[in-house]
Write a structure and sequence with these properties.
about 180 residues, about 50% helix, Beta-Lactamase, four-stranded antiparallel β-sheet, single chain, alpha+beta
């Protein structure tokens, strides 16, 4: 009887472990950890990224939506990723996808989604990098002058256009201080 209990306990732990949503990259391997560490890409300061993400979340929360907000640098590396209370775990991955699509296409992820739907040749960019996933509205580029230095995105509202309103509010809050 004890053996059966132990086997059942181990099996349930394995199921729980497998059901945990992975939303960020796994721990680096030993080789990755030992490799040289290049500098981050150009982006906004951490304080501005946090302020933009918090404003994004607050704007959506005021509209009744629980969202995740992410701000990435020019290389697509997160500067800030904040999940609002009640935001689903998958919104972290979706927000990241929206931000990366905005960065790589140099337009809002909503514009990229519309263009992908209307223009078959644009789909070549999206299929060339399958990690981009499906373009959805909610991501915006961050510019310093003529240079795109990152992106901001939100995910969790009932539709991407509502996410984009929140991300736009977050960007507007800091835009005059982006250099």
């Amino acid at each position: 009887m004890k053996k059966l209990f132990v086997v059942a306990s181990v099996a349930s732990l394995l199921l729980v472990e497998q059901s945990v949503a992975q939303t960020v990259l796994p721990n680096p391997t030993a080789a990755e950890a030992a490799a040289p560490r290049p500098q981050r890409g150009r982006g906004i300061p951490t304080a501005l990224a946090i302020e933009a993400a918090e404003t994004t979340i607050a704007t959506c929360h005021a509209n009744g939506y629980n969202v995740t907000a992410v701000v990435i640098d020019s290389e697509g590396v997160p500067i800030a990723l904040i999940s609002g209370d009640g935001a689903a775990a998958i919104t972290q991955r979706i927000a990241m996808g929206k931000a990366v699509i905005s960065l790589k296409t140099k337009m809002s992820s909503g514009e990229a989604a519309a263009k992908a739907k209307a223009d078959g040749s644009f789909n070549a960019l999206l299929t060339a990098d399958p990690s981009l996933g499906v373009p959805r509205p909610g991501g915006l580029t961050i510019s310093a002058g003529a240079d795109i230095i990152g992106a901001i995105a939100a995910s969790g509202a009932p539709a991407g256009d509502k996410d984009e309103v929140c991300a736009r509010a977050g960007l507007a809050k800091i835009n005059d201080r982006v250099r």
